[in-house]
Design a protein that fits this description.
The chain has 226 residues and is of the alpha/beta class. The chain folds into two domains: 106 residues, ATPase, nucleotide binding domain (Nucleotidyltransferase, domain 5); 81 residues, 2-Layer Sandwich (Nucleotidyltransferase, domain 5). It is built from five helices and ten strands. Helix 4 links the parallel strand 9 and strand 10. The protein starts with a strand and ends in a 26-residue tail after the last helix. About 2% of the residues have low confidence.
């Protein structure tokens, strides 16, 4: 059983997932992740009749997303994993958002503030698996790009960046994205599922999993435009 934690956006969620079972809690907690996360985990474990020592691993949404939110999730995951004697598994929050879509090709755009988006392109390779094509990057809406087109490949867009910048991104991508969903948020359920895959494949280590900020700065300097 894997505990999943996702706090990289305004959504705060936790989940328990095994090969044949799942249970979740989700809240749009805004800036109260630090107050809500541990009580949510405790409530979920209690509801499922489980203890930390019953876990096989703890997966956390490693970003990109809110710097503060990512650090909260990573810190709690590492502390609980130490107490439980299990590994932590960092999982891309963009991949978690992509795998939740029932689409073969997914272009994820999450608002990164400062007129930028966190951008990642994913191809579905199984019922609960996606493959990143290229890199996760932070770019302006007019700088996003998709992989070289194959025959009749049409992409689906998801993430808060689409609700903010769909006109600019759509013009840039020249009709290669057919539809988009701007309200989607990464969820701990998918974080836990992807983390479980990593554990089952032997991909996890006993090293501390690190967040993936993608961008190292959260504000422009005076007089600077990013």
């Amino acid at each position: 059983m894997v505990l999943g934690i996702e706090t990289a956006t305004r959504g705060c969620s936790v989940a328990l997932v095994s090969s044949g079972r799942s249970a979740t809690l989700f809240e749009e907690a805004g800036r109260t992740h630090s107050e809500r996360l541990l009580p949510m985990i405790e409530a979920l474990l209690t509801d499922q009749g489980m203890a930390l020592t019953d876990l096989d691993g703890i997966a956390f949404g490693a970003g990109p997303g809110s710097f503060v939110g990512i650090r909260i999730g990573a810190s709690v995951a590492h502390a609980l994993a130490l107490a439980a004697g299990v590994d932590t598994v960092p999982v891309s929050s963009l991949a978690a958002l992509a795998v939740a879509q029932d689409q073969p090709l997914v272009a994820v755009a999450v608002d990164a503030r400062m007129e930028q988006v966190y951008w990642g392109c994913y191809r579905r390779v199984g019922a609960d698996r996606v493959k990143l094509i290229g890199d996760e990057v932070v770019v302006g809406p007019g700088e996003v790009s998709l992989p070289d087109p194959g025959d009749n490949e049409i992409w689906f867009g998801v993430g808060s960046g689409w609700s903010l910048y769909s006109d600019r991104m759509g013009a840039r991508l020249q009709g290669r994205v057919s539809t988009w969903e701007g309200e989607g948020l990464p969820h701990a359920r998918e974080v836990a599922r992807l983390g479980l895959q990593i554990l089952e494949s032997g991909g996890a280590t006993d090293q501390i999993g690190l967040p993936s900020y993608v961008r190292q700065r959260v504000a422009a300097l005076p007089g600077e435009k990013l």
